[in-house]
């Protein structure tokens, strides 16, 4: 058999095996809603996988491989989840806190610190271990902290901490 055919066979086999989703090394702290989102996502993937598997020979093998990868990822994330207590104190910023801060230009922002899988900057949900999250964790109203961003450092002042949106 020609060497070219062997390489094509290997390439075809690799094409069906998706790259594993990376799992970060940081603790997997989750809010109550973040845990519910992980559970819902796992259930969704299980249903989609069952639907594909039920198709038998007509199933999309690449789709099955992708879903199996996602299933492993969400199972691991749920297994490693460390739920945090609901925010009851607004003395210091913690995971689950809503924080309003202002920068040196007077620009005000409001965000909530959440776990990695729940983070969505577009709606103000910021990973607690991100540069902004690290800058804010443990701070109090009136504190000035340095946000170390890729675009450069920015001093921000915490003006409000709340437990709810």
What can you see in these coordinates?
By secondary structure, the chain is α/β, with parallel strands linked by helices. The chain is built from four helices and seven strands, in the order H-E-H-H-E-E-E-E-H-E-E. It has two domains: 3-83, Helix Hairpins (Orthogonal Bundle); 98-162, Chitinase A, domain 3, CATH 3.10.50.30. The chain has helices at residues 3-16, 32-54, 61-80, 131-136, and strands at residues 29-30, 82-83, 98-103, 108-114, 125-127, 144-149, 152-162. A hairpin with a 2-residue loop joins strand 6 and strand 7 (152-162). Helix 2 (32-54) runs antiparallel to helix 3 (61-80). The radius of gyration is 22 Å and the shape is elongated.
Keywords:
165 residues; alpha/beta; Helix Hairpins; Chitinase A, domain 3; 2 domains; five-stranded mixed sheet; two-stranded parallel ribbon; 4 helices; elongated
